[in-house]
What does this fold into?
Amino acid sequence: MCWTRGPGWVILWAGPNESHQNYSIMEPPPQTQDTQSEAPPPPVMSLAERMTSVISAPSDAFDAVRDSPPSLANWVVPALLLILVSWIGIAVLFSQPALSQQALEAGRQAMEKQLAKQNLPPAQAERMRQIQEEWGPVSAKILIGVTPVFVGFAGPFIWGLFVWLLGAKAFKGGFAYMKAVEAVGLANVVVVLESVVRTLLVLCLNNVYASPSLALLVTSGFDPQNTTHLLLSTVNVMTFWVLAVRSAGLARLARVSFGKAAACVFGIWLTYTGVGIGLQAASKAIMSGIQGS
It folds into this structure.
């Protein structure tokens, strides 16, 4: 008897002295080991890479935030960096006598406008001026110093709530609230750059109100109480950059188009900015009417 073997089969046939019958026996295919190894997981992006990617390739940074475990560092480290850079800039600005005097003069002008609106008796008005001269510099430094702390630590939770409501609820993205906080906090890297740019502009132009906005068109006498000047200062290229990066974060977390995310993010910003400017203009109109009567 002879046999022939193939892949998964064996055929037997009889010799000349044996019965003329062929036998076909099927065998299970031999177990072969898969030589192809599984594709390695994508490399984990470090915090430094995420922070730099927010500037160069924000989609990659937010994909890493979305696909990686929760990380406190994503929003805490940019917040601390923002505070550090801002405080260094504040110290440099207040070390310049001309800039420090501009800040104090702005406080005095605001006080005089308030006194004019309130029509206080001369003695009381003079007392208010003395308080301003005594506590004005200290309060200005405290206010300027607290602002980056608020932006760095409270901002991610406030804007994170908007991103979470839009992305996880409205767009059905299904991500956790803290993921939105991480994305918004990571976007604060651009705010750090804004602090640097603004400090350099103030030093170069010798103007405490200098910013990368249309307010640069106001060559002298910028008045933060002036509605037109305030509108010009809101058209800020760095602000638009921050909003665009937040939009990218919303888009990647919720897996929606950038255009849809940007429409929501810029819409929120336009709403609260418009409300703030409108309330200030309305307050000025009301006070003018009271003084006129």
